[in-house]
Specification:
two-stranded antiparallel ribbon, 10 helices, 38% helix
Length: 306
């Protein structure tokens, strides 16, 4: 939470892997995964910083990420580990929401080549305490804790199909470590890959004055651009912002009072199948906008809309 500059708090609030409900769920899931053999506790050699005792890794020596000290020593510690070879691929097409025709095959390759034995316990100042499992002074790796936080939030808000929005680089970093923590009861967590949005360009008042689009400013920044980011995973170029704004304005002006039933049905099928091409189709986009207003009002939430 200290990593980001102060700003408006999301309407649903903030969750971290140190929140009480997240910790309780992490303990419950870890206990079950240990019981069925998915996770194990093993005594393994590691390197510890000679100054502060932080675990610097299991491989070659390096500077301590906690205090910056350059010296470490070899020791043996009990660690929480996940042997991925016994549990199939750690990332597949079904784990990605709205993959469509652009399945991220490079991410599957990266996940396939992570180490066979993944260490899920760390020496950090924050995280899910693993002392209840005999691992005093250690916490659950945040790459795993992140998934538990998403599942805990989904349970709190009654979301049966939780989806984590994440960039491709972040997915490559966390997917393997989160693999054991993507299912809980009937819930199965999936990833929605997205690119970065140049909000400094999109927030310019001059942009909306030039294109006479003040009426759709909030719609553009809060609804349409996030959807575009899910379609353009490599990121949205700042030079494309005006064209996207003009497209949304055209669709907004042309939106029907009542969306045609066949078009709305087709749109919902395309959304469910991960086909994001509708976002650049003025007629389909207008239909989505009209349905969005019918579902929640012109400025309300969009929980029922595509």
């Amino acid at each position: 939470m200290a990593k980001y500059a102060p700003g408006p708090t999301p309407a649903c609030g903030l969750r971290t892997d140190t929140d009480h409900q997240v910790v309780r769920l992490a303990w419950e899931m870890t206990r079950g995964l240990l019981a069925d053999g998915t996770l194990t506790v093993r005594d393994l050699p590691v390197r510890l910083c000679t100054r502060c005792g932080h675990m610097t890794g299991a491989g070659t020596a390096g500077d301590c990420r906690s205090c910056g000290h350059g010296s470490s020593r070899v020791a043996r510690r009990s660690l929480l580990v996940f042997d991925r070879t016994a549990h199939g691929p750690v990332l597949g097409r079904d784990d990605v929401h709205a993959a469509g025709a652009k399945a991220p095959s490079h991410l599957f390759t990266i996940a396939h080549h992570v180490p066979r034995l993944l260490v899920l316990s760390r020496t950090r100042s924050h995280g899910v305490d693993l002392a209840p499992f005999g691992l005093e002074g250690m916490v659950l790796d945040p790459r795993a804790g992140l998934h538990v936080a998403v599942l805990a939030a989904a349970g709190e808000f009654g979301a049966g199909r939780p989806v984590m929005t994440v960039t491709e680089n972040a997915a490559a970093d966390v997917a393997a470590y989160g693999a054991p923590f993507r299912r809980h009861g009937p819930m199965r967590l999936r990833y929605l890959l997205h690119g970065k949005i140049p909000y400094e360009t999109a927030a310019s008042d001059r942009l909306y004055e030039v294109h006479r689009a003040q009426a759709v400013k909030d719609l553009f920044t809060d609804w349409y651009l996030p959807l575009c980011a899910a379609r353009e995973r490599a990121g949205i170029s700042a030079v494309r912002i005006p064209a996207l704004l003009k497209l949304l304005r055209r669709a907004h002006l042309a939106r029907p009072t009542t969306p045609p039933g066949d078009l709305l049905t087709d749109l919902r099928h395309r959304v469910a199948a991960g086909d994001m091409r509708w976002m650049t189709d003025v007629r389909a986009l207008g239909c989505a906008l009209s349905d969005r207003e019918d579902t929640s009002g012109p400025t309300g939430p969009t929980r029922g809309a595509p």
